[in-house]
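Contributing new records

If you add data, match the layout below exactly. Sequence lines come first and carry their own label; structure lines follow with theirs. Keep one chain per record. Anything else will be rejected by the validation script.
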Amino acid sequence: MRVVVVGLGYVGSVCSACLASRGASVVGVDSNEFKVDRIEAGLSPIVETGLEPMIAEARKSGALRATTTIAEAMPGADVVLLCVGTPSAEDGSLSLEHVKRAAQEVGGALRSAGRFVTVVMRSTMLPGSVEDEILPELERASGLRADADFGVAYNPEFLREGSAVADFFGAELTVIGARDPRSAEALRTLYQGIGEIVVTPVRTAELLKYVNNAYHALKVTFANEIGRLCKREGIDSHAVMELFCRDTRLNLGRSYLKPGFAFGGSCLPKDLRALNHRARVRDLELPVVQGILRSNDRHVEEAVHLVERLKRRRIGVLGLSFKAGTDDLRESPILRVIGALVGKGYSMLLHDPHLDLERLLGANRRFVEDEVPYLPERLRGSIREVVEASEVIVVANGAREYREVGAMLKPGQALVDLVHAVDPASLAHGEYHGLAW
């Protein structure tokens, strides 16, 4: 394939050399003559492990060259990768000025391309940037139509400085945000054999890079906060975190990383409160750890607001325990939602497949008596009874019994899914509303 890489900074230089080493014919473009001259001389414009020998070999074989002019690079191109910078503005917003300028030049060159060219954004940019801002620039400059005359795609990069070459070839996922089948296929061909290739909508691919980086930053900050606490406690922080990381089922696995409802139960809230109290005693400020409960509270409030926005007064709630398959109501977040709605005069009917008030014992029974005295008169034994008597049905835990509730809905009813338990396609009638999806 013939590939044009616009921007020979960190990402562009690495992509150019790596793709050329895989057999692509690559032309790098940059307005900076120093970078172009370095590439032409078989040298790297950046310091990166293993990159310069690859550039030297690609120049020697003729697989890679560089120019300062997009128009000179474009003839015969199959794919154009835009790797120019998207710096922050003073207010923290993202500047697309450089990408737009590059898109205008690429668009001008597309006029005479005479073939279907896929233009791919690799620069980090927020959802909507490609389709709302860059695509129109390409169409205006070229006089052509996206998807019909040329392709547009987004291909996020996950290259770490110092290990970028290894990251390129060792990627677990190659994500392609494509608008049309031809663009998706062009990128599948370009990246064949590099990780699992996944094709997504463009906006999904755009956001993924930010989600990754936000989570990486969160992990660094969380580990550092735990380190500060450990030091005050006289504990080896590296020993603690080494043990923490050895659990790849819960701690470093997929567990808990699916958008759903707020956490609750007898452990997480209690332990976070204790940890935050100890930090205050030690005169430590741990913003990430301290913010977890506040963020959880906001999620509960959003559930209340979601029900209120539907402007209906008869509410049925399915699932009362904090976790499906248990009868533990202690600090169950849905009880806070129910309490708020009861206090505002909503009519409430409740159901839980595992809740038998006659069998509640110990702390769980005391919790019901002290915190949810309204529960016995509103609890029903039949799911259908709750659904038929309600205008809004709230699914609050993932009990198997609730997965088919959508088929019970009648016109005029709404289903509020707090835990992503019900397939929207299963609704015969009515409306579906997810909490965070």
